[in-house]
Amino acid sequence: MSHYTGGFGDMWVSSNHHALHFAMDTEKMILAKTDTTLTLKLCADDDDVLNELSLNQRNSQLAFCLDSGTVGVVDISMKQITRMKTSHDNICATVKFTPDRPSELVSSGYDSRLLHHDFHQRTVLSRFDLGTSPLPESSGVSMSPPFILSSAMSPSGILAVGTADGRVWVGTGGEKMSGVSSGTSVKKKRQKWEGLKQDEAFTADVGHGPIVALYVHFTAVLQNPN
What we know:
Layout: E1 2-4, E2 10-15, E3 18-23, E4 38-41, E5 50-55, E6 61-66, E7 71-75, E8 80-83, E9 92-97, E10 104-109, E11 113-118, E12 123-129, E13 148-153, E14 159-163, E15 167-171, E16 177-181, E17 184-188, E18 201-205
Antiparallel strand pairs: 1-2, 2-3, 3-4, 5-6, 6-7, 7-8, 9-10, 10-11, 11-12, 13-14, 14-15, 15-18, 16-17
């Protein structure tokens, strides 16, 4: 898995136990491990495996998740690693920073759980378990449980996750509100990100196999408060 910051910036790549940083302002067409500018070992156990990396909006912090269920954050400038007190019961497959929330992220995994963390306090702010929630009847026959394999977060705070049994769960409770003030569109930040609220979410049966990748496209809708 890789994360590219765009332009001639940099790229982070996860490989086995390590996060590898590459500078992209190079004339080389192929980069090797020897070209890394920084290598971070994020697995404390040699039997563990790094699954996904995610950069925050300022490119100052790097979130990661492991096969062991561990979720953590690296302060890139300090090279300081913080691991969450609460981990997943099975493989943690995805981790995403929460937009405009400088200390929050969401992780998900094969235990079918979504965990909303405050990584400064190393606490869980909210959680949701797809395995215990009612799901729409599948149009096909699936032998897979709702393991969470993929996730995507929009800039507005909408979260989507894809499962092993072909479902997509979308949580809209954390979306930034759009409004109209004196003819000008404005964004209203919620006091709390509530993207895991079940009453502001929906599930769709979209396939007959695992949903391994997602992208959330945000379209602004203006609402007149009057």
